[in-house]
Amino acid sequence: MSQTNAALIERKNQAVARGVGLAHPHFIESAKNATLIDVEGREFIDFAGGIAVLNTGHLHPSVVAAVTEQLEKLTHTCFMVLGYEPYVEVCEKINALAPGEYEKKSALFTTGAEAVENAIKIARAHTGRTGVIAFGAGYHGRTMATLALTGKVAPYSSGMGLMPGDVYRALFPCEMHGVSVEDALASIQRIFKFDAEPCDIAAIILEPVQGEGGFYVAPKSFMKALRDLCDEHGIVLIADEVQTGAGRTGTFFAMEQMGVSADITTFAKSIAGGFPLSGIVGKAQSWIRLIQVVLVEPTVVARLPVLLP
Ligand SMILES: Cc1ncc(COP(=O)(O)O)c(C=O)c1O
Fold first, then answer.
1. Could you write out the DSSP letters of every residue in 91-126?
2. Which atom of ligand 1 is nearest to 212's Cα?
3. Atom of ligand 1 nearest to the CA of 241
4. Where are the domains of the chain?
5. What is the pLDDT of residues 245-261, one digit of tens each?
6. From the CA of 150, how far away is ligand 1's center (Å)?
7. CATH class of the structural domain 87-296
């Protein structure tokens, strides 16, 4: 045994910032399917899957083959500068898979939080409004903007001070905690009455099944009511499927089971079998301003004549 868990934990404590915790006192040497082998040669069954990042298991042969093939050709150009076909192919596939009876377009990013941030930017650019309604116990990431949406103080926003503004928190329906669909809808009406008018709200964002919050499924009747509310007030409905997507709930996207569709869907985690890829898919008609406002940074536009022949 060349390495021990104890020795590596000691090195980690010396070299890695304290905020990056370690839930289990093991360092993993290799993994295959659902089996992990630590540096001391002990075998474990992986029930964590990198927190829903490995629906395909570790080192799925198709994922490894696709990545290997790509690595022998090209790693990066910055797609907005020079294109490559796999980006387009992924978007085509996601457009075909995402629920919603409308023409779709997608954009790709790296992390779930980045996908959520871009969904919010699009909703703001599209509506010209700034407010966002998120839900208690919802989880949307740990960057500053997504932290403002994440509805759990400890351990996420505790000690972080003032969050980016114009986020309003509604109740997520959960019978187990005594919150009915009616209670949850009433909490949104209270926001409209006491905090922000519907015409100030750009988006309502929720997980179809709360993950970090405790694995609570949003009732179909609640989703339908949110869809109606968004249609009535021109609010963008965002389904954060970073955790529920990629087959996690039995269908490719959980919203397929909800009877209504969102305007924008975020995806990440298991979408790339353990590699960092995320994105958003949404109504094609909403993307014209997005392309102008969000994705093509002025600096990139300015550089284009220099970079292109
Ligand atoms: C629903 C949801 N949204 C967003 C995120 C943030 O994703 P990432 O950790 O890739 O930034 C997560 C991560 O757990 C998530 O579960």
1. HHHHHHHS-SSS-EEEEEESSHHHHHHHHHHHHHHH
2. 16
3. 1
4. 5-68, 87-296
5. 999 999 999 999 999 99
6. 10
7. alpha beta
